[in-house]
Design goal:
With 219 residues, the protein is α/β, with parallel strands linked by helices. The chain has helices at residues 3-21, 25-44, 55-68, 82-94, 105-118, 131-137, 154-161, 186-194; strands spanning 72-76, 97-102, 124-128, 142-147, 165-174, 198-202, 210-215. Helix 3 packs parallel to helix 4 (82-94) and helix 7 (154-161) packs parallel to helix 8 (186-194). The N and C termini lie far apart (71 Å).
Length: 219
């Protein structure tokens, strides 16, 4: 090997060594956050009560956001924050943010504490408010909406949000399935299934039943 080749090889090795020794800040930050969220969820596993979603349904919400790269999310019905943590965790990877609403002050305060402990408060705008009033007033637009509040108001929430839901966006609703249309949510299910521009299915693997409706076109 001549001297020029030796110099070239040495430079290449130096560049490889330098690249391997320089950390990737974004990747490291994401990994650290992932570890913090995972540790929080593991610590609180089995403790979620007060109308929170089960873990299987939280994972479905996470996957919906990641798969579709959603960034502008709305949650109607925070409870104490389990579903919001899964949604916000996904949004931390897509660069998005979640607005979540609950009317109960006790649940709201506990949720805010949970968001902070999980390290996700920067990705969540938690509102203590009456969703009957706030949802119609929010300007949007949204690309992901999760509804898990008063079941007899599902259709009203859907009607209020639909004009603000972008084409390609998703409206997911908890505690509904082809076999379980009770709890006051039956009118919502019938409405969303009747709309030709909404593509609706029911999430496989959901413990409590969840409809997943994609907006494929404007009305």
């Amino acid at each position: 090997m001549n001297s020029r080749s030796l110099v070239t090889a040495a430079l290449a090795l130096a560049l490889i060594a330098a690249a391997s020794s320089v950390p990737a800040p974004a990747a490291q930050a994401g990994s650290a956050l992932d570890q913090k969220v995972r540790a929080f969820l593991d610590e609180h596993a089995g403790r979620w009560r007060d109308m929170n979603v089960p873990e299987a349904d939280g994972k479905i919400l996470y996957d919906l956001v990641i798969k579709n790269k959603y960034t502008r999310a709305l949650e109607i019905g925070t409870s104490t924050g389990h579903s919001g943590i899964w949604i916000a965790w996904a949004l931390s990877k897509t660069g998005g943010k979640l607005i979540t609403i609950d009317i109960d002050e006790g649940r709201y305060r506990e949720a805010v504490s949970n968001f902070r402990e999980a390290g996700l408060e920067a990705f969540i705008d938690a509102r203590l408010a009456d969703a009957h009033e706030l949802v119609p007033a929010l300007p949007g637009p949204f690309d992901f909406v999760f509804c898990d509040a008063d079941k007899d108001w599902y259709e009203n929430y859907f009607v209020a949000v639909l004009p603000k839901l972008v084409v390609g966006g998703c409206f997911a609703a908890h505690n509904v399935s082809p076999r379980m249309r009770g709890w006051g949510s039956g009118s919502f299910v019938e409405r969303v299934l009747s709309l030709p521009f909404m593509e609706t299915s029911f999430a496989e693997g959901s413990w409590s039943g969840m409809s997943v409706s994609y907006k494929r076109a404007e009305k």
